[in-house]
Amino acid sequence: MPLDLTTISPKGRDRYLRIGRAYGSSDTLKQANKTLHALDSHASALVDGGFASEDAVLLEAARNALIDAGVGRDEAAGKKRSTSQAYLAATTEAKAARARARSVLVATHRVLEDAGCEDAARTVETALDRASVLPDDAEKLATQLDALRATLNREDVVEVAKKRGGMTASLSLASASASLRAAAEAREGTGTQLSTEQMDLIDGIIVTLCRAARNTARLAAASQSQPALLKAFALTHIKPPSRAVEDDGADEAPATG
Description:
The protein is 69% helix and 0% strand. The protein is mainly alpha-helical. The longest helix has 39 residues, at 76-114.
């Protein structure tokens, strides 16, 4: 069955993309092969635990899509892994800078409002409202960081903010914004026959399904007294790089075996 990515809902795409960005396609391909090999022998043991035959079909289709895209035959997979790690690090840095800046601006707003500086206080409040939602998109997040930095550096805000860490926050925002844009641009240059987003989406599907198979195997191993299932479905190649990128179905501890 060919993989049809157009049938996935926007919410599902966002979930898969969030997960897939953290993994290299060479690793997800290896894990898909390992899990599919285990399913050849143990698929029936997983059915009653929630992993259906349709899930195995989807996993195989996603694996085949990576192979068709050239993963495993060229250097694109390795390059994607390094750029994915850089992107994840840049995103983490950006989120930390955003949190720091918002904290400084909240304190600054209070002081300005108490002092009766209504226009400046209103400006800060508006900036905080506009940056209240954390964007998923790298460019939108970088733009948000730029806006927070502009507010911190306003003439009627900067002196109050400076006493509360505003200068450090401003420098962090500038660095994080530049790093995030550079990492995002690097990721866009690592595509093969598929776009980077499509590769991330496929990686996310594979990681999600392999996690689901492993979790179901864990239950089956206990209820059916088949400890061999744990090793067969171990997440050998996709151990989580960060708790922050895992979804609700992720393992509670790194795989063994």
